[in-house]
TrEMBL record:
This is tRNA U34 carboxymethyltransferase. The gene is cmoB. It catalyses: carboxy-S-adenosyl-L-methionine + 5-hydroxyuridine(34) in tRNA = 5-carboxymethoxyuridine(34) in tRNA + S-adenosyl-L-homocysteine + H(+). GO terms for molecular function: methyltransferase activity; transferase activity, transferring alkyl or aryl (other than methyl) groups. PANTHER family: METHYLTRANSFERASE, TRNA U34 CARBOXYMETHYLTRANSFERASE.
Length: 321
C-alpha cells in the first residue's frame, strides 16, 4: 500500500501541522474501503523500474529523461506497466521517451490559466480534484514550495505515484485521497485551485465556502468550471445527463458564478478567461479506453451536447479571501 508517512513528516514542522490531528485516522479508514483493483494498481507502481533522470522539466512540460536513453525493450516494458493504469485522462507526460498521450491536453488549460495567477514561487498550494496531478507538477515547475492535491479516486493516486517515481521521487507534490468536504478548515494555503469540480457538486455554494476555509487571509482562489451564456440569474440544471455525465448539477453563467463567490465572502472576483472545449483539447487516444468529447456532442451540430444543451464552455475565475 502507499505510505503516507513521509508526507506526515513533511508537514509536521509547517503551518499544515494541524492537519495531523485528523489526517492519519482518515487515511486509515480510507484504506479499509478502497477500490477492488487498488492493490493491483499499487503493485504496478512497485513494478516500475527505479530510474534516475538526468534532466527533469516541470516548467514547460512534465518530462524526465536520461543522458543515455532507454533501450527499445526497456521503453516497451515501461509502456506496458503504465498502460495497466489506464485510462489516463489528464496530461500529457513525457517520461524517459514514453509519451503518455492523455485524453485531455491539460497543458492547454494551464497555458490559459498561468498568465493570470499571482506568482507561485514559494507558495503552499492546494489543488482540489487534482486527478493524476498533472497541474500539480506544473505548479512545482513555477517554484511552489509545496503542492498538496486531494482527489478520492484510487486510480488517480496510483497514476500520480507512478509519475512521481519517474520524476526522481520528487516530494514537493503530494496527493491525498480525500474530498475537500473531509478536510478540516486549515486556513493556511496561499493558493487554492478548483478546476473541473464545481459542476459535480450538489451544493456549489458549500463547495465555494469549503475552498475559502482552506485559504489564508488574502490568499488566492483559482476556480475553473463549466459555464453557460446568460445573466446573473442564469443557471443550467440538466434534467438527467450533460455530455453523457450523470453527475453534473449546476452550470452557471459567469455573472451568476461571480455573484455566488461574492455571496460566500470572496472579494476582487474577476473572470480572466472563457474558452470552448475543442476536439483538440479533449479527445480519444491510445491511453484511453473510453469515449471522449466527440461522443458527447451532437454529431450534426457540435455547438450542442448530445442531449441538446450548449456544448462545453469553460471559464477561469480568480478571487481573494
Amino acid at each position: 500500500m502507499i505510505d503516507f508517512r513521509p508526507f506526515y513528516q513533511q508537514i509536521a514542522t509547517t503551518n499544515l501541522s494541524a492537519w495531523l490531528e485528523t489526517l492519519p485516522l482518515q487515511l486509515k479508514q480510507w484504506e479499509k474501503q478502497t477500490h477492488g483493483d487498488y492493490a493491483k494498481w499499487v503493485k504496478i507502481v512497485d513494478f516500475l523500474p527505479h530510474l534516475t533522470a538526468d534532466q527533469i522539466d516541470l516548467k514547460t512540460a512534465v518530462k524526465s529523461a536520461r543522458d543515455f536513453p532507454l533501450s527499445d525493450g526497456e521503453q516497451q516494458r515501461l509502456v506496458y506497466h503504465l498502460k495497466q493504469l489506464m485510462p489516463w485522462r489528464k496530461g500529457p507526460y513525457h517520461l524517459y521517451g514514453v509519451h503518455i498521450d492523455c485524453e485531455w491536453r491539460s497543458d492547454f488549460k494551464w497555458d490559459r490559466v498561468l498568465p493570470h495567477l499571482s506568482a507561485l514561487q514559494d507558495r503552499t498550494i492546494l489543488d482540489v480534484g487534482c486527478g493524476s496531478g498533472y497541474h500539480m507538477w506544473r505548479m512545482v515547475g513555477e517554484g511552489a514550495k509545496m503542492v498538496v492535491g486531494i482527489d478520492p479516486t484510487e486510480l488517480f493516486l496510483c497514476q500520480f505515484e507512478a509519475v512521481r517515481k519517474l520524476l526522481n521521487n520528487d516530494r514537493r507534490a503530494n496527493l491525498i485521497p480525500l474530498g475537500i468536504e473531509q478536510m478540516q478548515p486549515l486556513g493556511v494555503f496561499d493558493t487554492v485551485f478548483s478546476m473541473g469540480v464545481l459542476y459535480h457538486r450538489k451544493s456549489p455554494l458549500d463547495h465555494l465556502s469549503q475552498l475559502k476555509d482552506q485559504l489564508r487571509k488574502g490568499g488566492e482562489l483559482v476556480l475553473e468550471t463549466l459555464v453557460i451564456d446568460g445573466d446573473v440569474n442564469t443557471v443550467l440544471v440538466p434534467a438527467d445527463r450533460y455530455a453523457k455525465m450523470k453527475n453534473v448539477y449546476f452550470i452557471p453563467s459567469v455573472a451568476c458564478l461571480i455573484n455566488w463567490l461574492q455571496k460566500v465572502g470572496f472579494c476582487h472576483v474577476r473572470c480572466v478567461d472563457e474558452a470552448m472545449t475543442t476536439l483538440e483539447e479533449q479527445r480519444k487516444t491510445d491511453w484511453l479506453d473510453n469515449e471522449s468529447l466527440i461522443d458527447f456532442l451532437d454529431p450534426e451540430d457540435h455547438s450542442k451536447t448530445i442531449e441538446g444543451y450548449p456544448a462545453p464552455k469553460r471559464a477561469v475565475i480568480i478571487a481573494n479571501k
